[in-house]
Design brief:
77% helix, mainly alpha, two-stranded antiparallel sheet
Length: 511
Amino acid sequence: MLTFILRRLGAILLVLLVASFIVYTLTAITADPLRDLKGSNAPNRQELIDNRIELLQLNVPIVARYFIWLAGAAKCFIGQCDLGIAFSRSNQPVVESLSAAAASTIQLVTAATIVAIIFGLTIGILTALRQYSGFDYSVTFLTFIVYSLPIFWVAVLLKEYGAIRFNAFLSDPVVTIQAILITGLIWGVILMAILGGSWKKRLITFSAAFVATGGLLALLGATGWFTTPTIGIVGVVITGIGAAVGVTALSTGLANRRTLYASLIVVGVWGALYFPIQFLFFYVPTGWMLLLTGLVAIGIGIGVGMLVGGDARKEAARTAAIVSFITYFVIVVDRVMLVYPAYVDRIPQSGVIATIGSKTPGLQGDMWFQILDGFAHLVLPTIALALVSIAAYTRYSRASLLEVMNQDYVRTARAKGLTERTVVMRHAMRNALIPIATIIAFDIGALIGGAVITETIFAWKGMGALFVDGLRDGDVNLVMGFFVVTGVLAVIFNLIADLLYSALDPRIRVS
C-alpha cells in the first residue's frame, strides 16, 4: 500500500509539473497584463507601466518566468507559499486571494456534495429495487429533465420560488387549506410510489401519509411555528428514535435487538442531556466546542454499543455512533433555530433566504447567528449545484446496482436464505459503489474548480470567480494560483478513489 501511494505521488508530481508549465505558457502568451494601463489617460501612464513590468518581471522570458514562479510555489512544501502578486486585486498576494476564494468554494462544494450523495444514492437504490415500476419510470423521467436543464435557468427559478416568494410567505406565514391538501397529496403519492405493494397497501400508505403530512402542516401553522421555529426535546427524541430505527434497519436489520437497544439508549442519553447541554451552547459558543461535543457524541455511541452489543459489538457500536451523531446534530439545529426571530429582525429587507453573496455584510452576532446566516446564503446555490449531481448519481447508482444484482454471487446469497436487506446492503451495494466512487471523486474535483455560472448568478466569490477574473485581466499569477489548488485536489481525489476500491471490494488489492 505504501509503495503504491509513493509511486502515485511521484506520478502526480510529474503530471502537475508538465500541466503547470503548459498552462503558464499558454496563459502568458495570450494574456496582456498591461492592457488596462495602455488604455489609461493617466498622466503618469508610462511610469505605471514600468512599475508593473518590474513587479511582474515581464521583461524576463516566459520560460524563465515560469521557473521563477515554480521556485516560489515549491516553498509550499515548507509552509512558505509564494505564488506571486495578483495585480488585478490591488497587488494582493495570490495566497491571500486563494484562501478567501477556496474557503468559500469548499463550503459550497461540501454542502452540495453531501446532499447530492445522500439523495442521489438513495433514490438510485430505490429505483433499482423497484425496476420497471411506476416509481422507476417517474424518477427516470424527472432525472433526465433535471440533468438537461441549463443551470442558469434553474438558479433563476430558485431565486423566484425558493427565495422571493418563500420569503414573502415567511413574512406573513398563513397556512391555507389548499396548501395543506396539496402538500398531503404530494407526499402521499411519493410515499405510495416508493413503498409500492398491493393496491390495498398503497391506499393505506397514501392515506397515512396524507393525514400525517397535512395534519403536521396544519399544526405548525396553528402554533405559529414558522414565526418562532423550534424542535424542542420532544422533537429531538422523536427524530432520534426515527434515526435509531432507520439506521439499525439499514445497518444490521431490526432483528438484531441489541443494536436497536443500543441506538435507543443513545437517544435516551441525549434526551437526558438536552437541557444541560443548552448551558454549554449559551456560555461557550465556539466552533471548537461544537467539534469536541461532536466527537463526544460519537464516543458515547461507541461506548454504549460496546457495552450493549454483545457478540455484535462492532456493528452495534457503529450504528449507535451514527445515531448519536444524528441526534446531537438535531440538538445543534434546534439551538440555531432559537436565534431565528432575532435574525429576522436584523435583516428586515433582504428576507430570510438570501439570493446573493455568502454572508450578510456587517451582521453582528455570536456563532449561532453566523451559522444561520451562512445557511440562509448557502441554501440556494447548494440546491442549484446538487440538483444536477443528484440526477447523475441517481442514474449511475441505479445502473451499477442493477448490473451487480444480476451477478451469480448475489443469486447465491439469496439461495442461502439471507434477507433481502443483507443481500442488497452487504453484498450488492459495496460492489455497486466502485464506479460511483470514481464519479464522485472527479465530481468533487470539478466542483472545487468553481461552478462559474452558479457563483456568478448568486454573487458567490469563490474559485470560479477568481479564475474568470484572472483570465479577464490577464493576471497570470492569479490563474496559476487557481490551477495549483484545483490541479492538486483533482489528482488527490483521483488517488483517494483508487484507494477506496480496495476498501469497497476486498478482491481488489493495490500493490
